[in-house]
UniProtKB/TrEMBL annotation, chain A:
NCBIfam families: PRK09094.1 (NF006573)
Transmembrane segments: 6-21, 28-50, 70-91
Disordered: annotated span: 97-123
GO CC annotations, alphabetized: plasma membrane
Keyword Cell inner membrane: no
Identification of the protein by name: Multisubunit potassium/proton antiporter PhaC subunit
PANTHER family: ANTIPORTER SUBUNIT MNHC2-RELATED (PTHR34583:SF2)
Main location as per UniProt: membrane
UniProtKB/TrEMBL annotation, chain B:
Residues covered by the Na+/H+ antiporter MnhB subunit-related protein domain: 788-911
InterPro entries, alphabetized: CPA3_Na-H_Antiporter_A, MnhB, MrpA_C/MbhD, MrpA_C/MbhE, ND/Mrp_TM, Proton_antipo_N
Subcellular location per the Swiss-Prot or TrEMBL entry: Cell membrane; Membrane
Name listed for the protein in its UniProt record: Multisubunit potassium/proton antiporter, PhaA subunit / multisubunit potassium/proton antiporter, PhaB subunit
Stored NCBIfam families: PRK12648.1
Length: 123, 933
C-alpha cells in the first residue's frame, strides 16, 4: 500500500513540476494545482495510512492521527485561494501585456528558438 | 549608576543640541560642555579606589541568555581614556565654536560630536565585550558622519566611505574574535575574560581569535596596511581631525590591545603580529609625513606613525614597554590635538593648508606660532617636553628585545630612523610654516591671530605638554600608575618618571635622532627629489577601484542569476530544492523502513493507477488546455476518494467541494485565455525539464516511502483524549480547527479573505477581451444559459442550502463544519450564476461579498474575544474547561460562533473571487468594442 501511495505522490510531483516549468501561465497554474495535490497527500500521510479509523470519537476502536488532517483541511482551502490568486495574476498579466508568457511582455515574437531561450524577458 | 550616566549623558546632549543651536554658537558650545562636566564630576569620587588599582563595577542584566549584560567597569586604564575623551572633548567644543562659521549646521555638528563622545566613552567603560562592540560600531558610524560633515565635497564623501569600509570591516572581524573568546571563556564579562588569559592562550582557537581581534584593532588604529583611511579622513573639519582622528577614536584600537593585554598578550604570535605591524606603521608613517605638503596630511601621517609606535610598544610584550605605551597615549593625545588645532587656526586665518604657500607666519601670528612650535618640539621628542619622555622609554625598550642574532639590531635602528624622520617633519612644520621667507599667494592676506578664545584649548594642551615634560612624577604619575596597573592586570614594574636618567644609550639615540633629523631637514631638497622619482600610490584610487571591481563582480553575478525570466527562476528554485533535499536522501540508503509494506487491495490499486495515468496525462496534453482541465478534475476527484479511503472523511468532503470550485475557476479563466499553448520551448529544454520533473517525482516517491515505513509517535493522543471532555465535540478534526488550534484557523481565514480582496483589487477596472473563438475556430455558443440547467438549478438552491446547514451544525461531532458547509453553499450559489447569468443572480443577492467576508472575520474574532470576558486567553484552549465544567458547556456555543465566522468567510471569499473574474467580460468587452468603433 505504501509503495502505491508513494508512487501516486511521485507522479503528481513529477507532472506538477514539469508543468510548473512551462513558459505559459495556464500550464503553470495547472502544475501548481497538481503539485498541491501531491503536497496535501504527503502531509496527510505523515499521520500514516489508516483504514476505517476515522478520528470521530466513538466510531472506531483506534483512531487515525487527526492533526495532519486538520492541517491538510485548511491547506486545501488555502490552496484554492492561492490558485485563484495566481489565476487572477495571470489574467492581469494577459490584460496588461497581451500575452500569457510567464516572463511578462515578450519584446518580439522571435523566429529563432535559440534566441527565445530564457533571456527574453519583460524588462 | 554613575558610569551609565557618564556614557549616556552625551547622547541626551546630542538630542538637545539642535535646540540650543537656535541660540547661536556660544549657547550650543556651553550646552554641549555640560555632559562632560557632569561626567567628570561623576568620575571624581571613584579616584580613591582606582588609584590603588581597584575597579568599579556597575551592572544590570540585559539578555543573559546570550551573554549580553548592561555592565560598566571603571579602572585606571578606562579612567585614563575617559579623561582624555572628556577633557579634550570640552576643549574641542570650545575650539569648534570659533572654527565653524555661523552659517554652518552647527546643531548637527555638535549632536554628532556628542554622539561620538558617548560612543567612545561606552567603549572604554563597557565591561561586557558585546556591549563594547555596540559602542565600537557606533564610533565608526559617527566618525563616518563627521568626516562627511561637509558632504557637498566629493573628497569628504569618499574619505568617509573609505573610513567606514575599513573600520567597519575591521569591526566585523573584531566581533567574530570576541565571539570566539566569549565561547572559550564562557562569558563576555571583562573580569572573567581577563582572568582566563591562560585558558585562552592555550586554546586551539587562540590564533584565530587573536588574528580577528587584532584586525579590528589595526583597522581602527590605522595600522599598516590599513593605515590609508586615516589621511583621507582629514577631509573632516579640523576639530574632528583633532578629536577623533588623533586623540581618541584612533586610539580605540590601542585601547583594545591594552584592555585585552592580560588575556591575549605574551605569546609568540602576539609578539610577531603586533610588533612587526607597529614597526612597519611607525616607519612608513614617519617617512611619508615628511613629503606631505598639506599641513593636515603631515599631521595625519605623523599620527599613523605614532600609533605604530604605541602598537610596537605593546607588541614587545615586556611590562615596561606596556607602561611606556600607555604613557605615550597621553603624550601623543596632548601634543597632536594641539598641533591639529594650530593647523586649523592657520587654515582658518590663511585659507590654505599648503606648506609651499604658508611661510613666515611668525610675523603675523607669533602667539599661535609659539604654541605650535612647543607642541611640534614635543612631537619631535625635544627634552623637557612630554614627547621626549615616552620616546626615551621607547628607545630604551627597543634595546631590550630578544631577537635572534643580527635581528636584534632591527628594533633600535628602526626606532632611531623613525626618530630622525619625526624630527625632520617636526622641523619642517616649524620652519616651513613660521619662517622660511614670506607667504606665497595666500587666499587670505594678511593673516592675523585668531579670536582669543580659540587659542585657549591649544594653550591648555601645550601647558600640559610642558608640565608633564618637566614634572612627570607630580603631574601624571598617579594616573599613569593606575592605568598601567589596570593594563598589566597586576603588579607594575619599577619605572622612573624622571627627565634625565643619566647618560645612556637611549639618550644617545635621542641625540642621534635629533641631529640626524635636523640634517635631514636641511638637506630636504635632495630627499624630495629622491622621493619624487617614485610614482606615488593614490590609495583612494586603488581603494575605489577595488570597490568598483567588487560591485562589478556582484552585478555580473546578479545578472547571471537574475535575468528577469520567471521561468528560469522557477527552474533554479526547483533544482536547488532538489540539490538540498538529495543530500540527506542519498545518505539514507534504504528506503523501506522497519514497519515494511502493507498489502494492497484491488480497488485502491486501480484508483491509484487511474490517478497516476491522469496526472501524467495532464502534463502530456497540457497544450490542449481544455482537455488538460478535464483530466485534472479526474485527478482531484480521486484525491478526494483517497482521503475517504484512508479514514479522513472531512478531508474527502473538503477536497470534493474545493475541486468543483477550482474547476469552475479554471474554466472561467480559460474563457479569457488562449485555448491552447503554443510550442515554444526548444526540445532541449523540454527534455531538461522532464529530467528535473522525473528526479523530483522519484525523490518524492522515495521520501514518502521512507517516511511511511517508519514507526512513529504522534502528539495527537492529547487531542483525541481531550476532544470530547475539553472541546465538547467528537469530530476531533473539527475540534482541532475551531478550538485547539483556533488561532491558526483565524489566521487562515484571514489569508483567505486577503486573497479574495487581492483578487478584487487586481482585476478592478482591468480591460480584458475574451477571444472571439475557442482557439480552434469554433465560435462561442449563443445559447448562454441553457433552459434545462436553469430549471433544475433553482429548486436545487434551497435544498443545497439545507444540506450545508446540516453539515455545518453537525460539524462538531460528525464530518462537516464551517469550511465544508461554506464550500457547499458557495457551490450552490455558483450554480445559480452559471445557470442564470451574472446579472440575474446578482440582482437577487441583496448583499455584497466584501461584507460577508468582514462579517465572517468579525464573528470569528468575537467568538475568540468572548473567552477574554470570562478571564481566559484569546480563543481559550481546552485546559480551562476541564476544571470549569459550566464554562465548558458554554464553549460549545462559542466554538459554533467561531465556525460560523469560518463559514461566512469561506463563502464571501470564494464568491468574491469567482464573481470578480466572471464580471470582467461584459464591461470590458463593451468598452473595448466602443474603443474599437
Amino acid at each position: 500500500m505504501e509503495l502505491v501511495y508513494a508512487l501516486v505522490i511521485g507522479a503528481l510531483t513529477a507532472s506538477g513540476v514539469y508543468l510548473l516549468l512551462r513558459a505559459r501561465t495556464f500550464p503553470v497554474v495547472v502544475g501548481l494545482t497538481l503539485l498541491s495535490y501531491g503536497v496535501n497527500l504527503f502531509l496527510f500521510s505523515t499521520g500514516r495510512l489508516a483504514t476505517g479509523k476515522q478520528p470521530i470519537i466513538g466510531t472506531a476502536e483506534s483512531y487515525a492521527d487527526p492533526l495532519p488532517q486538520a492541517l491538510v483541511l485548511t491547506a486545501i482551502v488555502i490552496g484554492f485561494a492561492m490558485t485563484a490568486f495566481v489565476v487572477v495574476m495571470s489574467l492581469r498579466n494577459l490584460a496588461d501585456n497581451e500575452d500569457d508568457h510567464v516572463d511578462g511582455k515578450q519584446p518580439y515574437k522571435s523566429p529563432a528558438p535559440e534566441q527565445e531561450d530564457e533571456e527574453v524577458t519583460g524588462k | 549608576m554613575s558610569l551609565p550616566l557618564v556614557v549616556f549623558l552625551p547622547f541626551l546632549g546630542a538630542i538637545a543640541a539642535p535646540l540650543f543651536a537656535l541660540g547661536g554658537r556660544t549657547a550650543i558650545a556651553i550646552a554641549s560642555s555640560v555632559p562632560a562636566l557632569i561626567a567628570l564630576a561623576a568620575l571624581f569620587p571613584h579616584w580613591e579606589t582606582l588609584a590603588n588599582g581597584g575597579t568599579v563595577l556597575q551592572s544590570w542584566e540585559w539578555l543573559p541568555a546570550i551573554g549580553i549584560s548592561f555592565s560598566f567597569r571603571l579602572d585606571g586604564l578606562s579612567l585614563l581614556f575617559a579623561l582624555l575623551i572628556l577633557i579634550i572633548g570640552v576643549l574641542i567644543i570650545l575650539y569648534a565654536r570659533y572654527y565653524l562659521k555661523p552659517a554652518e549646521n552647527i546643531g548637527k555638528f555638535y549632536a554628532l560630536l556628542l554622539c561620538f563622545k558617548g560612543s567612545m566613552l561606552g567603549i572604554v567603560l563597557s565591561s561586557n565585550l558585546l556591549l563594547m562592540m555596540i559602542f565600537w560600531e557606533l564610533t565608526s558610524l559617527t566618525s563616518f558622519l563627521l568626516i562627511s560633515f561637509w558632504n557637498h565635497k566629493q573628497d569628504a564623501r569618499r574619505g568617509a566611505r573609505m573610513a567606514l569600509a575599513v573600520t567597519g570591516g575591521g569591526g566585523l572581524a573584531l566581533l567574530a574574535g570576541i565571539l570566539i573568546i566569549g565561547n572559550i571563556v564562557g562569558s563576555f564579562e571583562l573580569d572573567d575574560v581577563l582572568a582566563a588569559g591562560d585558558v585562552i592562550k592555550a586554546h586551539a582557537m587562540y590564533p584565530v581569535a587573536l588574528t580577528l581581534v587584532l584586525l579590528g584593532a589595526f583597522t581602527k588604529s590605522a595600522q599598516f596596511p590599513f593605515h590609508f583611511w586615516l589621511p583621507h579622513a582629514m577631509q573632516a573639519p579640523t576639530p574632528v581631525s583633532a578629536y577623533l582622528h588623533s586623540a581618541t577614536m584612533v586610539k580605540a584600537g590601542i585601547f583594545l590591545m591594552a584592555r585585552l593585554y592580560p588575556a591575549l598578550a605574551g605569546t609568540e604570535q602576539w609578539f610577531y603580529m603586533v610588533s612587526f605591524t607597529g614597526m612597519a606603521t611607525l616607519l612608513i608613517g614617519a617617512y611619508v609625513a615628511m613629503f606631505k605638503h598639506d599641513l593636515k596630511g603631515l599631521l595625519a601621517h605623523s599620527t599613523v606613525s605614532h600609533l605604530g609606535l604605541i602598537t610596537l610598544l605593546f607588541g614587545m610584550g615586556t611590562e615596561l614597554a606596556a607602561v611606556a605605551a600607555v604613557f605615550h597615549v597621553i603624550n601623543h593625545a596632548t601634543f597632536k590635538a594641539s598641533l591639529f588645532m594650530a593647523a586649523g587656526i592657520i587654515d582658518h586665518e590663511t585659507g590654505t593648508r599648503d606648506m609651499r604657500r604658508i611661510n613666515g607666519l611668525w610675523r603675523y601670528m607669533p602667539h599661535t606660532a609659539t604654541l605650535a612650535m612647543v607642541a611640534a618640539s614635543s612631537m619631535a621628542g625635544v627634552p623637557l617636553l612630554n614627547g621626549f619622555l615616552s620616546k626615551e622609554m621607547f628607545f630604551a625598550e627597543s634595546l631590550q628585545l630578544n631577537l635572534p642574532g643580527i635581528w636584534a639590531w632591527l628594533p633600535p635602528i628602526v626606532a632611531t630612523l623613525a626618530g630622525i624622520f619625526a624630527v625632520a617633519y617636526s622641523a619642517r612644520f616649524i620652519h616651513d610654516v613660521f619662517f622660511n621667507g614670506k607667504p606665497v599667494n595666500l587666499p587670505i592676506y594678511p593673516p592675523h591671530e585668531p579670536p582669543r578664545y580659540m587659542k585657549i584649548p591649544v594653550e591648555i594642551l601645550v601647558f600640559a605638554c610642558i608640565m608633564v615634560g618637566m614634572f612627570p612624577a607630580v603631574s601624571v604619575g598617579p594616573l599613569l600608575y593606575a592605568a598601567a596597573h589596570a593594563t598589566l592586570g597586576g603588579e607594575v614594574p619599577d619605572y622612573q618618571l624622571a627627565v634625565i636618567h643619566g647618560f645612556n644609550l637611549p639618550l644617545i639615540m635621542s641625540f642621534a635622532a635629533f641631529f640626524g633629523g635636523l640634517i635631514m631637514y636641511s638637506q630636504r631638497q635632495k630627499f624630495f627629489d629622491f622621493h619624487a622619482r617614485f610614482k606615488e600610490i593614490d590609495e583612494k584610487a586603488v581603494f575605489e577601484a577595488i570597490v568598483l571591481r567588487i560591485v562589478d563582480l556582484a552585478n555580473g553575478f546578479t545578472a547571471r542569476i537574475e535575468n528577469g525570466s520567471l521561468q528560469r527562476y522557477g527552474m533554479l528554485l526547483v533544482v536547488s530544492v532538489l540539490a538540498v533535499a538529495a543530500m540527506p536522501l542519498l545518505d539514507l540508503g534504504i528506503f523501506i523502513g522497519e514497519t515494511g509494506l502493507s498489502p494492497v487491495d484491488w480497488p485502491t490499486a486501480i484508483a491509484a493507477g487511474v490517478l497516476i495515468i491522469c496526472a501524467l496525462l495532464t502534463a502530456a496534453v497540457h497544450r490542449q488546455r481544455f482537455y488538460a482541465l478535464v483530466v485534472l478534475s479526474v485527478v482531484g476527484l480521486i484525491v478526494a476518494l483517497a482521503f475517504a479511503r484512508f479514514s479522513a472523511p472531512d478531508l474527502a468532503m473538503t477536497q470534493l467541494s474545493v475541486e468543483v470550485v477550482t474547476i469552475v475557476l479554471l474554466m472561467l479563466a480559460l474563457y479569457y485565455m488562449p485555448g491552447w499553448t503554443p510550442v515554444e520551448t526548444p526540445l532541449k529544454r523540454r527534455f531538461r525539464d522532464i529530467a528535473i520533473a522525473g528526479i523530483a517525482g522519484i525523490g518524492m516517491t522515495l521520501v514518502t516511502l521512507a517516511m511511511l515505513t517508519q514507526p512513529f509517535s504522534s502528539i495527537s493522543d492529547f487531542f483525541l483524549e481531550n476532544s470530547k471532555p475539553g472541546g465538547g465535540g467528537t469530530n476531533v478534526v473539527n475540534v482541532i480547527l475551531v478550538d485547539f488550534r483556533g488561532f491558526d484557523t483565524l489566521g487562515e481565514i484571514t489569508v483567505l479573505a486577503i486573497a479574495a480582496l487581492g483578487i478584487y483589487a487586481l482585476l478592478k477596472n482591468t480591460p480584458l477581451t475574451p477571444p472571439p473563438s475557442d482557439g480552434e475556430g469554433h465560435a462561442w455558443s449563443r445559447d448562454a444559459y441553457p433552459l434545462m440547467l436553469r430549471l433544475i438549478a433553482r429548486p436545487l438552491l434551497p435544498l443545497s442550502l439545507m444540506v450545508s446547514a446540516f453539515i455545518f451544525l453537525r460539524g462538531h461531532n460528525l464530518p462537516g463544519g464551517g469550511f465544508i458547509a461554506g464550500l457547499i453553499t458557495s457551490i450552490a450559489l455558483i450554480l445559480q450564476y452559471i445557470a442564470s447569468g451574472l446579472n440575474w443572480t446578482q440582482d437577487r443577492i441583496p448583499f455584497k461579498y466584501h461584507n460577508v467576508i468582514g462579517l465572517g472575520l468579525l464573528f470569528a474574532t468575537i467568538a475568540g474575544a468572548a473567552s477574554l470576558a470570562f478571564g481566559y486567553p484569546f480563543l481559550t484552549s481546552t485546559f480551562g474547561y476541564i476544571t470549569w465544567p459550566v464554562v465548558g458547556k458554554f464553549e460549545v456555543a462559542s466554538a459554533l460562533v467561531f465556525d460560523l465566522g469560518v463559514y461566512l468567510t469561506v463563502i464571501g471569499a470564494t464568491l468574491l473571487a469567482l464573481v470578480t473574474i466572471g464580471r470582467i467580460s461584459p464591461h470590458s468587452a463593451i468598452k473595448s468594442k466602443r474603443e474599437g468603433a
